[in-house]
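Morning F.,

Quick status update on the modeling queue. The single chain you submitted on Monday has been processed. Sequence for confirmation:
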Amino acid sequence: MTTEEFTPRELGLLAGARWADGSLEKGDVERVRMVGDDDIGPKLYDEIMALGFRERLTEFSDPEAAELEFWRGFAHGARGSLVQNEIGRLARSN
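Structure tokens below.
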């Protein structure tokens, strides 16, 4: 499956998971925990949109709805990465 075949939510899910993985590798757990459906923050918004997602989202028939779905997916991807990280940490501590 190519990136052209992903929905805005799926693009966000992938972007959120990759971003969170990178942040967690740097030890920035709190930054990942702060991500919520309606609470991305302007700095993170600009950081992610600068990666070319703004252009990708304008390709959809309803760019405003696409962006909303992207950020919902992003938040879920970030949270999923956080959960996986925590499960790994707990498994290592046992």
